[in-house]
Amino acid sequence: MTGVSPHPARPGTSPAAPPSRPSATRAIAAATIGNALEFFDLALYALMATYIGKNFFPDADPGVQLVRTYAVFGVTYLVRPIGGLLLGAYADRQGRKKALMLSIRLMVLGTLLMAFMPGYATLGFAAPLGIVLARLIQGFAAGGEFGAATSFLVEQNNQRRGFFGSFQFASQGLATLIASGFAAALTTTLSDAQMTAWGWRVPFAFGLLVGPVGYLVRRYVEESPAMARMPAARNGGKAPSPIRSVFRHHGGGLLIAGGALVVSTALNYALQYMPTFAIRELGLDNSLSFTALLITGVILTFGTPVVGLLADRFGRLRIMVPAAALIGLSAVPLFVWITRAPSFLSLVLCMTVLGLLKATYFGALPSVMSDAFPVEVRATGLAFSYNATTALFGGFTPTIAATLVTATGSRISPSYYLLAVSAVSIAALVSGSRIRGLR
Questions:
Q1: Are 71 and 398 spatial neighbours (Cβ–Cβ below 8 Å)?
Q2: If phi over 0 gives left and psi between -120 and 50 gives alpha, with beta otherwise, what is residue 411?
Q3: Cα–Cα distance between 230 and 350 in angstroms, integer?
Q4: How far apart are CA 218 and CA 23, in angstroms?
Q5: pTM
Q6: CA pair distance 377, 361, nearest whole angstrom
């Protein structure tokens, strides 16, 4: 890797001029605020699963109730590849900015339904259907968010793609931070009955207040430099279909980008599942369990851009491959430790280690994924590879984890899943290095 630029220029493209500091700050803010809001709402569902289940999926067995609730969490991820393709193609033909404005409007609509949908006791079977509808809308919006936002960020500066791209996942860390902060604060100040009755709705209502701010920031930001240089025919929507082009000419890019994402997305939702795991399986206090996730959110929010800076300097795969290996190798012993010595301290240390490894791995991941596709189909390729992967390995991770524990009776069984997916991502990174010259 000596003498090879971490981000070689793609054929047929010219390097983007570095944006001015105010322009760069606005670009980061536009992508981060809206992206954090969208993933904040998605994270809330996982964190509030116990209370949502009591309201919308009544069952005598709490374990079955939780599996049903998480199943909705997973099923709605199936719509994300569709949203990714449609909104990604829209971003490639009409511009990143227009797609980002559309996605945040859709997310606010889904959040509105989540915040105010009456429970099963009031609406009967219509109540869980309403929750499914809300999750479908949110999933569709989030499906297009990743491709448009990541493309928008990495296209700001070719020499600092790792740093700018890192804010895509830093914003997801911020979402985890805010969501877990709400969960910790609410479960500390409210009783279980109050949380079940109305407390779980409070953070969704907060999302409705943030939505207009994110929309306004995106409305007044400039288009990405790379997209602004695209021919007017594409911006006017007359170019060949990005969807057709991605599947016809960039299948390898889809496999590399999606495979590289597998361990990151599985670990992300495993971390969101761990507070529920600690409460149900280890008997730890609700508020303390959510506080552990809060600490992880801080690591992901502030550690990820640092890794992005290091990746621009030393090379992305030099950092990502060892991190993926450590995620797989550490998962089993960490789960063994926390189940044999359940405590707030062991939970915090376990999630801190996994959070540090995740930040190390996914700091440079957005730029690696983006380099698998040329500018004209980048948002579409990113959106589909990201959402197909999250549908298979992310959205169903809490369901898989809960089902593994219930079916096997082994509380460490979710760790074997993380071990397996880490091997998949390492294989994808190695393939990307050999086939596409990714560094």
A1: no
A2: alpha
A3: 46
A4: 12
A5: 0.78
A6: 25
